[in-house]
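Hi all, long-time lurker, first post. I run a small reading group and we've been trying to get comfortable going from sequence to structure in the token notation. Rather than ask abstract questions, I figured I'd post a concrete chain and ask someone more experienced to write out its structure so we can walk through it together at our next meeting. Sequence below, copied exactly:
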Amino acid sequence: MLGFGLAVEPQLWTLLFVMVRVGAAFVAAPVFGAVSVPATVRVTLSAAIGVLVMGSMPIAAPTQVFAFTTFLAIAAEALVGLALGFILQIAFAAPLVASEIIGGSMGLSFATMIDPQRGAASPALGTFLSVLLTLLFLSVDGHLILVDLIARSYELLPPGAAWLGANAIRNIAMFGGYAFLAGFLLALPVGFLLLCLNLVVGMLSRSAPALNLFAVGLPASLAVGVIALFVAMPAMGDYMLVIVREALDAAKTLVLG
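-- Answer (accepted) --
Happy to help. Here is the structure in token form:
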């Protein structure tokens, strides 16, 4: 018997209670949280994983719906799910940081397109790197590891006692700086070469003031940038795998301590 006096199957309410954490993780996580993924798919996946969690460990739903403790428990479940997805989303911001550094030097900062993850306009180079990172994330079964972490989170953070401590919140905030560090390291090979090119063009402008920098510097930066991206792409791909592993390790640390 629930708080509003209706006799409802307890397993149904337990499933809805479990789906709060799973659904919050899918809303914040990359791939699952993309705007191109319909809400029906997210709800269906949340229900399927909720059934899996209920079959693997005993979980009881709150006895009353309209109670302050129930609202606190639901907020705690949503907080844990959002934290798991947000950690991965931080790592997926690294390609956007790298594209701003590279695109500004190449003269491609004005070229934008719709990001399939966020559904908003972003640099074209950043969208390309984000798609590449997403494919690498799927190739190492990152989506399956995320589902496994969500299921295992109920062992360390059981429903009703799932509040994250101050250290966990601080670690998430500190991990936010990793997006800038990873983006800088991702853009370092191409960015350093473009910086050297800009120094050469600056020296030419001082030695030959009549030289039109827009007619020489912009095509040269674009050509050198494209060639440098082609040459450095294997190394950038390897470092993107490092970014994926760091994000999954950070999420695992949040769940398992």
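A couple of things your group might point at:
Residues 10-256 form one domain.
Confidence is low (pLDDT under 50) at residues 1-7.
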